[in-house]
Every structure is written in structure tokens, then in C-alpha cells.
Amino acid sequence: MNIGIFFGGPAREREISFAGGKTAMENIDKSLFTPIPIFVDGTGNFIILNESLVYSSAIRDFYPPKSYQGDYTIYSESLGQLSDEELDTMLQTIGTRISPDKFKSYIDFAFIAMHGPGCEDGSIQGLLEWYGIPYSGPSVMGSSIGIDKIAQNDLIRLAVGLNKKTATLTRQSFEKEEASILFEQIKAQVGLPFVVKAPHQGSSIGVAFVKKDEVGDFVKAVKQCFFIREVSAEEWNTTDKKEYVQKMANLDEGIGLPVALNNELIYHPAELLTKLDAHFAQANAKAELISSNAEDAVLFESFVKGQEFSCGVIQTPDCVSVALPPTEIIAGVEVFDFKAKYQSSATRKRIPIETSLDNLNKVQADVKKAFDSLKFGVCTRIDGFLTPEGEVLLHDPNTIPGMSPTSLIFKQMGEIGLNVTDAITYFIRQSIRERIRTGKNTIKFQLLLEKLDTAIAARIEGLASRKQVAFLFGGFDAEAQEASYAEAKKAYGRLAASADALPVPIFVIGNDAFSAKYYKLPTNIMFKEFAEDIVKALDGSVHPLITQTRINAEAITLHFTGKLVGSVEEVDLSTILSTCQAQQNFVAGLEIAL
What we know:
Layout: E1 2-8, H1 14-27, E2 34-40, E3 46-49, H2 51-54, H3 66-69, H4 84-91, E4 95-98, E5 109-112, H5 123-130, H6 140-147, H7 149-160, E6 166-170, H8 171-176, H9 179-190, E7 194-197, E8 207-210, H10 215-226, E9 228-232, H11 233-237, H12 241-249, E10 259-261, E11 264-266, H13 269-281, E12 286-291, E13 297-302, E14 307-315, E15 321-323, E16 327-330, H14 338-342, E17 348-350, H15 357-373, E18 379-386, E19 392-398, H16 408-414, H17 420-436, H18 442-462, E20 467-475, H19 478-497, E21 501-509, E22 517-520, H20 531-537, H21 544-552, H22 554-561, E23 569-571, H23 573-578, E24 582-585
Parallel strand pairs: 1-2, 1-5, 20-21, 20-24
Antiparallel strand pairs: 2-3, 3-4, 6-13, 7-8, 7-13, 9-12, 10-11, 10-12, 14-15, 14-16, 14-18, 16-17, 18-19, 21-22, 22-23
């Protein structure tokens, strides 16, 4: 099957999407699928990207091409309105532009690795349905619910009960009403402290935390989530203006371009600098910049004291939902926002949550019920809090979880025996099954599903004849173990995705090479966050919740891997290497005679 990997996109988290697309390209099973990289730019053009550009560090490294960027690093929106001829000329430098009506000529399936508005809200899902292309993830309805945080709260309240105080505020009311009055109203509804959220963003974009009883903090947080940036004359005249407008164009620290100033859309950083200079030359005290994709309302939620968690829900081949082991977010930051998720090492994760088995069962039961009631399908990651009283408060379902190799959903699927390659195969297979349920193109998709299931079964049968590749990592001190583990994870992913190799991870530990012990690791151990977590897992103990989850997920594990989750096994090095046809060594200073 030809799989179109759709990445990039028009939303603010496009760089994370771009990184997720690379993960899919690298880890998709090459024995089953041929990946086709389809880059989606900020204005919605679809481009089959030249493969040499797929592994660029960031979108702006190659698009717009450097010759179009000038003195600023920009996204394509900043180029303004190009003619069709100008646009075609530019796009030809990075790949082949295709229109949706031609998708069928290139791909059999669309793997959506994009996040945010337009990407996981039913928009591109509806486009693909119109042209009869099966796609990954929930349906149009499930996707639209999955992006609307206000609707989610209402629906989760109906599904499982939600004892969480919430409120909303429209931009019109915010602009017309006295801020101090609004602040008092919000405090009366949700209490203090509280969280402010942009309700239609993914990946925790547009999240602010108000903890002081100060109206200034309230106004600042609300404007942040409306994507409004206020600039004072003093700030403008004492800053590096070029650096300031460049930051404004950066999606990870600014509100992005284009922005509106005095009801005029401004597309380019240089133009913004000129317009702000002119604005303040008129003796204005401040300027208000509003993102062209500003929210129309913001959501307020009471601050919850408790253990923060994230729990994925997937399905058996027969569409029975299964809750995965919930991951506890041990945060070193106040809000698990975009930077905490993707750009910070301040947070750590623990699987499962450190609590009683009864509480863990309740978390799984609630997320499973929410998944079923909100008609998500395929896969959804649902976040929440477990209070000290044992109450489960759910929020922010995510129908397209992050796609980095260390994403929470991959860690949780690892606990039932699926590596990243297996998980991607699951997403594709189960999404085809989900498309059949809509009653459109039923026979076509049934035949595609049968073909894929036959190929998956043949792949499993052929695993025994593959070249086994042992890779040794670990070491004799914590620093060596962590450094080698980083390399080992890359090797594991690369080998698992290949068409002819079978990875055999061997963890080395001891005081020196002469006293070293060697442990063959099962799939789930390769998803531990740090090497120190592997050391703790060498005793072979398994949490009872994970044991039960594996039983619930047996049909999934067997369908995609052909075997149940193994256990840690201490091995004799010479014996294990004699059964392998190739070896890689990531243990510094360890000499092995083969």
C-alpha cells in the first residue's frame, strides 16, 4: 500500500507535526507500506516533498526557499498573495504539487500526522472522505469533538460525570465589559487559581494560568489565549525592533503572522515593523496585534490539585475499546503546555500512575467510557487529574496524539507489546476498519482491509526467517547507560521498521566488562524514559494494572505482533550472539570477541 504521510499544515503546531511526519516516515513498516511524504504548507497546498528535504530540522529551513525569505525567517503566509504562476514556480523547488482530486493517483491511504485547527477538527478528514481516500484517526464527527474543548467538557459531563467548574468568555464580551467585573464573575464561577485555554487548539497551544487575585494577570492570560499581543510605545521604542517582529512571526514564541493592526492584515515581519513605527509616530500609547486566526471565546477551568495523567484508548480488531495504562505527568512546571510537552526536560512520566489499583481501574473505566460515548474510534489520548480523594476529572481528548518516538501513546502501546512500527500499522489497519463503519465505500475498504490483514499475517509468519540483529547498550555507570540508551532507541526503531531485520536489544550492566551481566529486553522495556528505569525493571516485576491491560489487549497484540509481551531474560552473551547474524555495540569501552 502507498501511504501518504501528511505533515506540516496550517496550524500553530506545524513544526511538531513536521517532526511527527518524520517519525512516521522512519518507523513505518517497509515490508507492508511505501511511505509518500506529503507536506502541507501554511496556506493548504499539498506537495509531495523531495525526500532530501523530509529530514530537515524545521520547515523554514527549506520552505519558503531561502531566496524568498530575505532578512527574516518566515512561513509561507508571510509571502502574501502569490499568483498561481509564482506559487507553482516556488513549489517546484521543493517537490510536486498535487490537488486533492489527484490523491488517488499517488496514495491508497492518508496517514494524518498534523495537529490543530484544519488538521484534526474534521476539515481534512471531510476532504478525504469526499474523494474516497481512507485516512487515519476518528471520523469527521469524532475529530470535530476532539478539537473543541468547550464541547468536550459538556459531553464528558454527560458521559461520565465531571465535577469540574468551567466557564467561557467571548471576545465580544471581553472587549465591551469592564475587566474587573469579568474577573469577579469568573472567580465566582470557577474559583482561584484557574486555567485559561484557547478552546480550538491542539498540543496545549494557548494555555495560561492565573493564580493571583490581580485583574492585570487575568487580562494578560485572556489576551494570550485570544492570541492578542499588546505592545506599548515604551516597549517598542526601547526594543530591538527587527528581533521583536521576528519573534512575533515565530509560532513557538509569538502569535504568528498575519496579524491585524487597526483592522489591517499584515503578512510580513518587515511590513509589521514599518506599520508599528508609523502607528507610534502618531503618539499612540499602545498597539494591539490580533492573530488572523484568533479565538472567538476562551475557556476557564478551575485549578485541580491532584496527579496529572494521560491515558490512551485504542481498539481490538473487532472495534472493542481498550484503555491503555495511564501515564502520570510528574511536572516541574505549573502547566503541561506546548513547551513543557515538546521543548522542556522539566517533566517526567511514570507508567502507571502511582496510586491504588482501584483508582487506576477507575481511570481506565472513565476514559474508556468517554472514548465510547464521544464516538472517537481508532485512538484517542485523554488527559485528566486524579484528586487526593480518588476523583477522576477528565479533559482535553486528543484524537491525533503526538507522533515523536517518545510520545505518550507509543510508551503506553509499548506496554502491551507494540513498538512504534507496530503502532503505526495499528493506526492504518484500524482506521480502515473505522472507515467501513461510516457506510461509504464499504466494499472497497473491506477488500483493502482483508488485503492488509493478509499481509500482516504473512509478515508475522516471516519474522522467524529474518536477520536477527543484536545491539548491546548500557554500561558500567549511569552516564554511560543514558548515552548508549539514546543510540539504542534509534537502532531499535530503524531495525523494527526494516523489511528484513529483527532487533534483539541486549542491556549490559555491571562494574566492568568481566563482571557484566546481559539482559535480553522485551518490547515494552525499550520504551522506558531513562536507562535508570530499565535498571529498575530488570527484576522482571510487572504492575498488576499492566498485567490486566495486557490481557484486555491480547487480541491487539497478537494481531499485530503474533506473540504476547515477553519478559526480561538474563542471557549468556556468546549464546545470544551465536543466534544473531549481525551485532551493534553502543557500550563504550566494551570489547566483544565474536
